[in-house]
Amino acid sequence: MACKEIFYSGSEDWPEIKDWLDLRKNPESKVDDIVREILANVRKNGDSALIEYTRKFDCPDFNESMMRVSLDQMSMAFAEVKNEDLEIIEESIRNVRDFHRRQVEESWMTTKEDGTILGQIVRPVDRVGLYVPGGQGGETPLISSMIMNAVPAQVAGVKEIAVISPPRKDGTLNPYIIATAKELGINEVYVSGSAWAIAALAYGTETIKPCDVIAGPGNVFVATAKSQLVGEVGIDMIAGPSEIAIIADSSANPIWTAADMLSQAEHDPLASSILITDNEALAEKVTEELSLQASRLPRGEIALKSLAAWGAIVTVNSMNAAIDLVNRIAPEHLELSVSDPWSILGRISHAGAIFMGHHCPEPVGDYFAGPNHVLPTVGTARFSSALSVETFCKKSSLIYTDKNYVTRHGAKIARMARLEGLEAHARSIESRYK
Q1: Residue 134: what pLDDT?
Q2: Gap between the Cα atoms of 434 and 432, Å rounded
Q3: Which residues neighbour 419 within 8 Å (Cβ) at sequence distance 6 or greater?
Q4: Of residues 289, 332, 335, 362, which has the active-site annotation?
Q5: CA dihedral 375, 376, 382, 388 (to 10 degrees)
Q6: Would residue 105 show up in a list of annotated catalytic residues for this protein?
Q7: 400 - beta bridge partners?
């Protein structure tokens, strides 16, 4: 099994590991100019640009009548999905909704003794656009991504939510995408993909209204389009390739540990799976299991490429070293596969999501438990957080002061303005008390 083997004893070993991991931040594909041209084309030509790109890359017979999924089409697609699958989707939505309800922030005001009123008003944005990748030719739809993006927007109170997803070759969407939208109570579903879909959500077209916030994962074209639109619309985050780090001790099951590493490695060749353990016997057994299990996976070839390039089994001489390393990596997903995960939880400073113990693998959070699976990647968990209700809200500061306040503090305010060379600011305040 071609997986990098590393020994980590402390901070002196970090620079070499960091240099290796940093290479994931700069994939070879450079698409900035292509995406910039796509955005400009959609902004200028609207629906006709969307149709042109969709015919070229997805469905040769695509036309304007296929751009929006009708209510009748939604009902027919809903009927195609198995009842047992709908029940699973419903339960997942309930769990995610329950978790995110706890994130809701309230507006507040406080009144000081002199009558000054200060506060913060929290409001949802008016309209959100959600991008949902179609998967392999539209046959592996990312329904979990729709749930994870739509539910916090709904909990935030967003009134308008539009979903957009690339079509299959026949111009239709996978019925699971449509059925999940219907389960979520979303009836505005459009058919388009890649950077041109993101452009449509940002700028609007004859068919699609512009959105205030755009969320949802995608390929390098989608990610680049979102990055180029920062400042024009809100976005969830610029997500990199997926990753997992696992801290494991002698109590960990090597079969389960290898399966957990492969659960990330199968995403794509840039995904990273890192085991950090103080037990050499576990490291050896996991290495053997990775080869055995990868050979049985439908996406085994992708997983093997990922492990060869970005997988590692790191042995450490203590749990202290393991914790130090994982805090430096700041992984998207962190599993604590140790006998007492609670004893080290308080020492974990940087991770997008933390999975506790031997019976809580990463897919529990990806699909079902409730916390959001849209997480910071490539070390950004040092300063950023999972997608949440806050992503779809904006906050306004509230300030009320009276004449007495201005008279009492005006000279100080004017002085600060003049220190910054802003005379009009100073006169604005002085005109009220002089």
Answers
A1: 85
A2: 6
A3: none
A4: 332
A5: -50
A6: no
A7: 117
Active site residue 332: yes
Residue at token pair 């997480």? 375
CATH code for the part of the protein at 32-235: 3.40.50.1980
Cβ contacts of 387 within 8 Å, gap of 6 or more? 148, 149, 152, 215, 236, 237, 372, 374, 375
Tens digit of each residue's pLDDT (9 = 90 or more) over 332-369: 999 999 999 999 999 999 999 999 999 999 999 999 99
Q: What is the pLDDT of residues 233-246, one digit of tens each?
A: 999 998 888 999 99
Rounded mean pLDDT of the chain? 95
> Residue 41 half-sphere exposure, CB side, CA atoms within 13 Å?
18
Question: CATH 3.40.50.1980 residue ranges in the chain?
Answer: 4-27+241-369, 32-235
Q: Residues 184, 153: contact at Cβ < 8 Å? A: no
Residue 368 C-alpha from the chain's centroid:
16
> In 25-128, which residue ranges form alpha helices assigned H by DSSP?
32-45, 47-57, 71-80, 83-101
What's 230's DSSP letter? B
Burial (CB < 10 A; 0-12, 13-18, 19+), residue 302, is: middle
CATH of domain 4-27+241-369: 3.40.50.1980
Sheet containing strand 393-400, strands side by side: 108-111, 117-124, 393-400
Q: Are strands 234-235 and 213-215 parallel, antiparallel or unpaired?
A: parallel
Read off the pTM.
Answer: 0.93
Which of 183, 267, 289, 333 is catalytic? The answer is 333
What pLDDT is recorded for position 239?
A: 82
Please name the residue that has the structure tokens 């997608």.
387
Listed residue (182, 199, 131, 130) closest to 160, CA to CA:
130
Give the whole-angstrom CA distance, residue 261 versus residue 210. 40
DSSP output for 165-218: E---TTSPPPHHHHHHHHHHT---EEE--HHHHHHHHHH--SSS---SEEE---
How many angstroms separate the Cα of 272 from the Cα of each of 160, 263, 265? 36, 10, 6
pLDDT at 430 over 80: yes
